[in-house]
Amino acid sequence: QPGTMGSAVFAGMKPLDGFLGVRDSAGVAFGEALKVSLAATPEAAQRAFQIPLAGYVEAHIEQGPRLEIAGKPIGVVTGIQGSRWFTIEITGDEAHAGTTPLAVRKDAFRAAVAMVQALQELMEDPTDTVRFTIGRFSPSTSATPKTK
Question: In this structure, which of 15, 42, 58, 63 has its CB flanked by the most CB atoms within 10 Å?
Fold first, then answer.
């Protein structure tokens, strides 16, 4: 993430330098991964960005089960799923679960679970068009002590 970095650079929407520092969830910088990939594939021709194209075909394996379910070996894309990404941080206070009454706890994970449930209900779609998922939960504790 962000998605479509390659297309954005190729089309001139953003310079390559704008993405080199982007890091994945393991902390690997895109620029470093790109160097490794280029070194591993010296036979691959590098092309200039923004070269004129008359057409473009992008072969994909199916990323969902629809063709398999329909028993079809190949399909033609007629649309694309748009996406929005959000990063949400929920904070709370640590408390001893055995002795802290539920009514006074400020449990961030409990709030997160309720939020996910509410979003799943909100995104309920009888036409099966909307796609909603929680991509990652990264629970952590803060070293910062509580203040009163």
Answer: 15
| 30 neighbors 21 (Cβ within 8 angstroms) | yes
Angstrom distance (rounded) from CA 144 to CA 142 = 5
Q: In the structure encoding, which two tokens stand for residue 13, read together?
A: 């929407």
Q: How far apart are CA 139 and CA 116, in angstroms?
A: 14
Paired tokens of 10:
């190729």
Beta-bridge partners for 29 = 23
Is residue 76 within 8 Å of residue 62, measured between CB atoms? no
Chain mean position to CA 19: 16
For the chain, the helix, strand and coil percentages under 3-state DSSP, each to the nearest 5: 30, 0, 70
- The residue type of 127 is T
For the segment 42-59, what is each residue's pLDDT rounded down to a tens digit?
Answer: 998 887 777 777 766 667
* Confidence (pTM): 0.55
